User: Fold Glyoxylate reductase/hydroxypyruvate reductase from Diatraea saccharalis.
Amino acid sequence: MSLKKVLIVNKSYPVVGFGVLLSGSKQNILQYLDYEPESLPEIKKNIEGCDALIWNTKHQLTPEILDLAGPQLKAVSSMSSGLDHIRVEELKKRGIALGNCPHVLDNAVADIAVGLLIGAARKFKAGIRELESGQWKYGVQWSTGLDIAGSTVGIIGLGGIGQAIVRRLKGFDVARFLYSGRSDKPQAKALGAERVPLEHLLKESNYVVLACPLTNETQNLINADTLKLMKKNSVLVNIGRGGLIDQNALYDALKGNHIFAAGLDVVTPEPLPKDHPLISLPNCFILPHLGSATIETRNAMASIAANNILLALEGKSMLFPAY
Ligand SMILES: O=CC(=O)O
Assistant:
């Protein structure tokens, strides 16, 4: 293999990933950039002449950045499952191989979804606030939340993560699992999940879990109109992307108690400014995008991204090609 330049745009890229890249060829030149919000000018400065990119930044990989890289750019891998930060069609048009890291994070993200669901339904945020401010009261009606047993759970997007969520929640004595999405999932039968139209799912579910990718079709899927369909005592969980929800509409629905609570691992923007209105709400339980953040999962993702790149540079198919 001739000398190659791989640009890793990533904060604290796991050492296993470097190991994989170096194992493929001792001749790869590795450049490493920290993933910071302000790093875009630095990325633009360093990208020229790269043969491959590990693109793990919230910045969009745009035609302008691809032009700056140059025509030798052959391969791009995200270190994520979602590809909403990459102009997929543009890369395809230019003949650049593109890959991602799906499946390996399904369990870790599903764990966080269940954590959010319990945390939101059982008022963890309000309870912790009261505990920390010395307001812990005792009373049979204090801080009462919602049961999971006997409930209907609606999963929007029954992919690998959605399925892992259902598997976990089966242990919680959920009465019914519904799902909606673009296609019938063959796995649904064994999981006992029934495919229904979105509107039906929103009306029937006590828990609505967003586990779908962000696309033009799913942008603001949860908005003022769809929130109105949800039950008053329902909980909304989002482990997909912040853009799936119109956050102003969610704020109004939570503030007005039109729905009971929300549990969000993903928001817009990330990081969310500390004075953001959603943070002020006791019934909005927010985590800082921890979905895939376990040591094992991040190592596995780094290794897949590196293998995607190595394979493409060798002219082979990536482990997880996007097209
Ligand atoms: O959010 C995480 C991912 O898409 O991998």
User: Anything to note?
Assistant: The first strand starts at residue 4 and ends at 9. Residues 106-286 form a domain with the Rossmann fold fold (CATH 3.40.50.720). Residues 279 and 286 are 7 Å apart (CA to CA).
